[in-house]
């Protein structure tokens, strides 16, 4: 029996040209996101988790953790599919937190290929993306660069384990 495989959805190193741009869909930040991130990270700083405390700060209300914004941006990029099954590693990050992310803000990311450099063996390459995270008003709340190691076309895909295959031949 032949097992069908669609292959990677993501773009290969050769497909990502300097200047290539994409914009993600938006996602609204909720109180549940902030509470969940506090639990996941262990960061219960009152600015994020205590409404009374946060009211007396320069922001006047609770705001999202900065790293929650970064995590949301990463998830939004992943939703587009261009990173799926071709990215081998997230190898670098330079990041700036420019403005608060408030409960109810809708975030989206603008991503552009800034640089490319193949690995010496040619099986992959490093791609530097300029990333801006914006809110519903178009204000940049976070920005920076992500460096990813992206597989080259023809380098061969990692093989899925039999348990992960969409179809397995029956035994016996």
Describe the protein's architecture and organization.
By secondary structure, the chain is an alpha+beta fold. It contains four helices and six strands. Strands 1, 2, 3, 4, 5 and 6 form a six-stranded antiparallel sheet that branches. It starts with 20 loop residues before the first strand and ends in a 21-residue tail after the last strand. Pfam families: MaoC_dehydratas. Residues 19-118 form the MaoC-like domain. This is Acyl dehydratase.
Nutshell version of this structure?
This is Acyl dehydratase. With about 170 residues, this protein is of the alpha+beta class.
Mean pLDDT: 91
| Largest sheet geometry | 6 strands, antiparallel
Class computed from helices, strands and strand pairing: alpha+beta
CATH superfamily heading: Hotdog Thioesterase
- Helix-strand sequence: EEHHHHEEEE
Q: How many helix segments?
A: 4
Tally of separate domains: 1
Under the CATH scheme, the architecture is Roll
CATH third-level topology: Thiol Ester Dehydrase, Chain A
CATH class category label: Alpha Beta
* β-sheet strand percentage: 25-35%
* CA-CA gap between termini: 13 Å
The general outline is: elongated
**Which radius of gyration do the C-alpha atoms yield?**
20 Å
**Overall helicity:** 10-25%
Number of DSSP-assigned strands: 6
List low-confidence stretches. 164-172
């Amino acid at each position: 029996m032949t097992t069908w495989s669609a292959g990677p959805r993501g773009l290969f190193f050769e497909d990502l040209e300097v200047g290539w741009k994409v914009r993600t869909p938006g996602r609204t930040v909720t109180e549940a996101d902030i509470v969940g991130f506090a639990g996941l990270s262990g960061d219960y700083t009152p600015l994020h988790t205590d409404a009374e405390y946060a009211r007396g700060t320069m922001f006047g209300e609770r705001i999202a953790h900065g790293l929650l914004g970064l995590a949301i941006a990463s998830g939004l990029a992943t939703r587009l599919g261009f990173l799926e099954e071709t990215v081998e590693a997230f190898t670098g990050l330079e990041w700036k937190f420019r403005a608060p992310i408030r409960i109810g803000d809708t975030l989206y990311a603008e991503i552009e290929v800034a640089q490319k450099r193949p690995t010496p063996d040619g099986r992959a390459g490093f791609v530097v993306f300029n990333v801006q995270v914006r809110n519903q008003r178009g204000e940049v709340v976070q920005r920076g660069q992500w460096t990813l190691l992206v597989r080259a076309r023809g380098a061969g895909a990692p093989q899925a384990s039999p348990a992960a295959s969409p179809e397995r031949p029956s035994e016996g």
